[in-house]
């Protein structure tokens, strides 16, 4: 049975997917914690500001994100982890970029009562 926290985080995951597809910087700003750090599939650490800038400038354009194999674990009332496999297609710096990735995200309930990604990691899958 799905808990209310798992449902809320699943909804936040869908909002994140939608915002990334639209490069909706305002929505991403709401969904990403100020202290976010994201370790990408190349091992580079990306800050919230860098991620938002990539979307705003058009350097990062995501055309398709197809999630599968999602697992959500509620750690407490205010923190949950997500592991999700995605098929992703788009471009970075004008060059095509696509592949299958596994993302691990930690979501935390903000002081204002909405879920935000506080850290994330991506791995290229085979």
TrEMBL record:
InterPro entries: DUF4440, NTF2-like_dom_sf. Pfam families: DUF4440 (PF14534). Residues 10-117 form the DUF4440 domain. Coiled coil: none annotated. It comes from the Bacteria. SUPFAM superfamilies: NTF2-like. This is DUF4440 domain-containing protein. It comes from Desulfoluna spongiiphila.
């Amino acid at each position: 049975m799905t808990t209310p926290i798992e449902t809320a985080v699943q909804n936040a995951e869908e909002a994140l997917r939608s915002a990334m597809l639209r490069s909706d910087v305002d929505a991403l700003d709401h969904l990403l914690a100020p202290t976010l750090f994201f370790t990408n599939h190349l091992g580079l650490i990306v800050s919230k500001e860098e991620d938002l800038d990539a979307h705003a400038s058009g350097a990062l354009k995501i055309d398709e994100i197809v999630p599968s194999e999602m697992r959500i674990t509620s750690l407490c009332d205010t923190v949950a982890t997500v592991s999700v496999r995605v098929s992703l297609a788009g471009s970075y710096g004008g060059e095509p970029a696509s592949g299958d990735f596994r993302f691990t995200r930690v979501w935390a309930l903000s002081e204002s009562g909405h879920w935000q990604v506080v850290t994330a990691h991506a791995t290229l899958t085979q």
